[in-house]
Design goal:
Elements (H helix, E strand, L loop, with lengths): L2 H12 L11 H11 L24 E5 L2 E4 H21 L4 H10 L2 H21 L6 H10 L14 H19 L2 E2 L1 E9 L2 H12 L4 H8 L3 H4 L4 E6 L5 H7 L8 E5 L2 E11 L8 E2 L3 H6 L3 H23 L2 E3 L16
Antiparallel strand pairs: 1-2, 1-9, 3-8, 4-5, 4-7, 6-7
Helix pairs in contact: 1-3, 2-5, 3-5, 5-7, 6-7
């Protein structure tokens, strides 16, 4: 089987694993996919929705976080939810059980799903302890944007499971954004077509004309013109190179002209948050902001990944997280469809 074919078939397993970014770093892509999967919390926890799955010889505990116990049945449910349809698709394409098994082993599918179960639960626990929740209006919009979320022929159908899954998704992404950090500046800008126009902007500012007014009336960038030139907090690397360099070096509240290709920027830095450690850098305001960042992958690896690794290490050291000895997810049968 060729490398290209392996990659194509592996993609079927993930369904949503290509969401947002096409990064090439395997660890980052794997972790991010975990955060983007639409997994219902009720589908993972043995104690969810007031239904308790008893730990038995046939349904052993595989890990525990706090008072929440997760069993083999939980893992099998998660496994089917994540790769069941992908396996069915591969079979329809003519792949044998042996080929699919080999593909799953090569991509460490089952071990990855187990790690994501642990990660999701730790991040949800962190969210509860830190008061991170969801906006009901945003959740409603998200739920009804999903394919087949609402069947008009069944107006009273229950969307609880879907809502829980989307709520978890939103919360986990908030935790991701809160704990991914970068050097940032809060700046506003006016983009004009030549240096003479930039000089005129600076002269008008010096004469007392309001920056917001000038940005609204003269900036070539209509998106920021609508906000009076305000870019909000912008991570390092998201401006053109020369503008970025200026933004992280010029004095605050000092409008400055900078050429960027065929246009000129008049940029004013209102605030700046930088640091040599992650704690000194600024967290992202939202996952959407992180998603759009040119260096999102780098920021994730440098700040979120160490933060999560420490979170898990602390949970294990304190006894909050207990992994069952002897459980090997790679020995769990794949959810092949019934013959």
């Amino acid at each position: 089987m060729s490398t290209a074919k392996n990659a194509s078939e592996a993609g079927i397993f993930g369904s949503v694993v290509k969401a947002f970014w096409r990064f090439t770093v395997n660890r980052f892509a794997w972790m991010l996919c975990a955060l983007m999967l639409m997994i219902a919390l009720a589908g993972c926890q043995s104690t969810a929705n007031a239904v308790t799955l008893q730990v038995t010889t046939d349904n052993p505990q595989i890990f525990r976080i706090g008072s929440d116990v997760y069993t083999l049945a939980d893992y099998n449910r998660r496994l089917k939810q994540e790769v069941g349809q992908g396996i069915a698709n591969l079979i329809q394409q003519g792949k044998t059980h042996e080929e699919i098994q080999q593909l799953a082993d090569q991509n460490k599918i089952r071990a990855g799903i187990f790690e994501r179960m642990v990660q999701d639960t730790l991040l949800m626990q962190y969210a509860r302890r830190n008061g991170i929740g969801v906006d009901p209006l945003v959740l409603d919009t998200d739920v009804f944007a999903q394919p087949n979320a609402f069947d008009p022929t069944k107006p009273f159908s229950d969307t609880t499971t879907l809502r829980m899954g989307r709520a978890q998704n939103q919360i986990v992404l908030k935790v991701l954004a809160r704990n991914t950090r970068a050097d940032m500046i809060h700046a506003r800008q006016i983009i004009v077509e030549n240096e003479a126009a930039a000089d005129q902007i600076l002269a008008d500012l010096k004469a007392g004309t309001d920056f917001t007014t000038l940005a609204t009336n003269r900036s070539m960038d209509k998106a920021t013109a609508a906000t009076g030139g305000d870019q909000g907090w912008t991570p390092k690397g998201d401006f053109p190179a020369d503008v970025d360099t200026a933004g992280f070096s010029i004095a605050l509240n000092t409008p400055t002209k900078v050429q960027a290709g065929h246009v000129w920027y008049v940029i004013e830095v209102l605030d700046r948050q930088i640091g040599s450690t992650a704690a000194e850098k600024r967290p992202f305001d939202s996952f959407e902001q992180l998603q759009k960042s040119q260096n999102g992958q780098q920021f994730y690896q440098e700040t979120f990944q160490p933060w999560y690794d420490q979170l898990r290490k602390d949970a294990e050291a304190s006894g909050e997280l207990t992994l069952a000895q002897g459980f090997d997810p790679n020995t769990v049968p794949l959810p092949f469809p019934a013959q």
